[in-house]
TrEMBL record:
Region annotation (Disordered) ranges: 240-259
Phylogenetic classification of the source organism: Bacteria, Pseudomonadati, Pseudomonadota, Gammaproteobacteria, Cellvibrionales
Organism per entry: Pseudohalioglobus lutimaris
Keywords linked to the UniProt accession: DNA recombination
Residues in Integrase catalytic domain copies: 121-234
Pfam family, one: Integrase_1
Protein name per UniProt: Integrase
Amino acid sequence: MRDLNYQLKLLCKHSHEGSFETRVGRERQLSAIANQLHDLGFRQLKTTSLKQKHVQTLVDHWLKQDLSPGTIKNRMSCLRWWAEKVSKRAVVASSNDYYGIPDRQFVAEQSKAKDLAEEQLALVKDEHVRMSLRLQQAFGLRREEALKIQPRWADRRDHLQLKASWTKGGRERTVPIRTSDQRALLEEAKQLAGLGSLIPGGRQYIEQLRIYERHTANAGLSKMHGLRHAYAQQRYRELTGWPSPHAGGPSKAKLSDAQKRRDHEARLTISKELGHVREQITAVYLGR
């Protein structure tokens, strides 16, 4: 292993920022960046060797590859993290505009919402995985959140309280408990998990993640992030009174001024419930 790859691996290992999947993704991205720097002619680098010319060369290379703005911006986030850890924050410009990176396009062309039918769920043989899937569907949880959640601790009567250690980006949040079906499901989850999480005793998160992946694949299930999309669209209808554009509803251009205000308020609420900080991201789930 080259020095740079090894040193970046150590940086990642000693950092506990973000969720498990965030940390794994960051380490993978930085390893790929180290390999790209080597292929671009920068040899025998160390983590403290990072300079503006390295960043600019990488960005130019990515732009020539016609990568999506989102992909490039994710890589820039990793570069900024690296620069901060070696006290060279100024090496990477604070704005992506400086490098000519285009804006991310948030509006998806079509809905990615997924439903989870009872017959599909019955094909999942692990009861903890089944419960995690049901919680993803009912509360719009991410996969990691639905595995790590401690139902008894999270239950605050009228809402779920999600710990920072369960969530992407380490941001605590709450999700409302709105219906009797949600309440009944949560009681089932509490009974199954006892005082712990939906990771059975004796297993680590990564082990349960692999079990989740295997059982969902064996059941013919994929892209279960779509359950969050379905949750967002359901919440939009509840909050506005009409379906979202991705669910066949009117686009923003066709709304009255009063409806536009309600649309904006609903999107802010949904963004918060999903654990995002920007209203714009709701266009991915709901359309625009």
